[in-house]
Amino acid sequence: MSAEAQAQQRRAGFASSRGTVWDLVAVDEDDVPVGWVCFGAYRGETDAAVPGEVYALYVEPTLVGRGIGRALMDAAHHHAEVERFATLLLWVLRDNVRARRFYAAAGYVSDGAVESSLYGETAVEEVRYRRSLVS
């Protein structure tokens, strides 16, 4: 995997999304970015109305566990509700137990969808999670 190849792939994926892509950034007291969440319309096919998708969530690794990710997800949920998304989907690496626990605590559940990709010679499997935003 290379950062440049991943960046190109992500840009192409975001460009093909249906609608606006939102980026929310968390900053520290010195206005230094410490976290980021990116979301918009779901890029995959679904039978229902177009749901939203959390494309990426990043928190500075030295600051994980301090509530930054949770605050970003809460803000993304609020913004997605305002944009009238009834559901948010996201993909997470199957073997990333910590992230899967984080998303479960944020109200997401695995819906059984699985996607496999090849990065170089390494197979990577992701599982899809879903959260309803409708009370």
Superfamily at the CATH H level? Answer: Gcn5-related N-acetyltransferase (GNAT)
Instruction: Find the structural class using helix and strand composition.
Output: alpha+beta
Summed up, the helix count is 3
How is the main sheet built?
6 strands, mixed
Number of domains: 1
Level-1 CATH class name: Alpha Beta
| CATH architecture classification | 3-Layer(aba) Sandwich
How many beta-strand elements? 6
- Share of helical residues: 25-40%
User: Cα-atom Rg, whole angstroms?
Assistant: 15 Å
Q: How much beta, percentage-wise?
A: 35-45%
What is the name of the CATH topology? Aminopeptidase
Give the uncertain stretches in residue-range form.
none
Average pLDDT across residues?
87
Distance between the termini: 40 Å
Helix-strand string: HEEEHEHEE
Explain what this protein looks like in three dimensions:
By secondary structure, the protein is α+β, with helices and mostly antiparallel strands. The protein has one domain: 3-Layer(aba) Sandwich (Aminopeptidase), CATH 3.40.630. The chain is 27% helix and 39% strand. A six-stranded mixed sheet has the order 1-2-3-4-6-5, covered by helices on one side. The protein is globular, with a radius of gyration of 15 Å. The model has no long low-confidence stretch (mean pLDDT 87).
